[in-house]
TrEMBL record:
It catalyses: orotidine 5'-phosphate + H(+) = UMP + CO2. It comes from the Eukaryota. Belongs to the OMP decarboxylase family. It holds the Pfam family OMPdecase. GO terms for biological process: 'de novo' pyrimidine nucleobase biosynthetic process; 'de novo' UMP biosynthetic process. Signal peptide: none annotated. InterPro entries: Aldolase_TIM (IPR013785), OMPdecase (IPR014732), OMPdecase_AS (IPR018089), OMPdeCOase_dom (IPR001754), RibuloseP-bd_barrel (IPR011060). Gene3D superfamilies: Aldolase class I. This is Orotidine 5'-phosphate decarboxylase. Residues 34-257 form the Orotidine 5'-phosphate decarboxylase domain. Pathway: Pyrimidine metabolism; UMP biosynthesis via de novo pathway; UMP from orotate: step 2/2.
Amino acid sequence: MPSAHLQTYAQRAEKHANPAAKALLETIERKSSNLCVSVDVTKKADFLRIIDIVGPYVCLVKTHVDIIEDFDSSLIDRLKELSAKHDFLIFEDRKFADIGNTVALQYSSGVHKIASWSHITNAHPVPGPGIVTGLASVGTPLGRGLLLLAEMSTKGNLATGTYTADAVRMARAHRDFVIGFIAMHRMDGIGAQAGEAVEDEDFLILTPGVGLDVKGDSMGQQYRTPREVVLESGCDVIIVGRGIYGKGSDAEVREQAERYRREGWVAYEGRVSPRS
Ligand code: 5BU
């Protein structure tokens, strides 16, 4: 069996036991889109308008719901309606980073009640495996999936080397709930012990820091192209924020969403069926 990233998204969907991972892979295949748009705006109306525009082109919408100034529960109802209308999943980029008991409360409760609507969320491995246990106690019964931050896109970040390998080991110990990583390249076999059977593992790699027109911002963000990310580094989903929603008119936002969808998909096709 070839390594997961050389199989099609449909083949991988068939084998995934976690409901969120399976649904994401099926959506990617159905829509021919490995694009996730990150909608980092602070007003409810802008948030919903942008999602309605990019919805047809994405498999996943990534949110930072805590930056929305006029948040109320009706926003979540509208978001769920858009998710059904355009056939995409939701990923709240919450980056949990506390002890298990606290993250379970942050995930289930408070104003945002993230677990009740977000198919996928993420966490820093820094507190140790208790963070996964805490989040899993809430998310597993709901069929949710967790990504661990094994690497980051920013200049000078500390998620490298043995930290990354430890994140992968932590995921391996919780394969039913941890569906993959935020990372800059594939994690296949990283941190495996001698003789440990890891050939069949299929962790999804979702990758931020993607841009076609600029190389970075003034606060350490670094961009690579969809081709570098998907074809050269073997990642599964490209995450694009300002490169799409920051473009001004609704027509331009739509155009950029379609452009990134196409670039991401061509890179994937080149990966699974390379021309000789
Ligand atoms: P941008 O506008 O495409 O730069 O936005 C990138 C998004 O991805 C933004 O919401 C970040 O919070 C998120 N992100 C990131 O850029 N780099 C990382 O390593 C992680 C998340 Br983890």
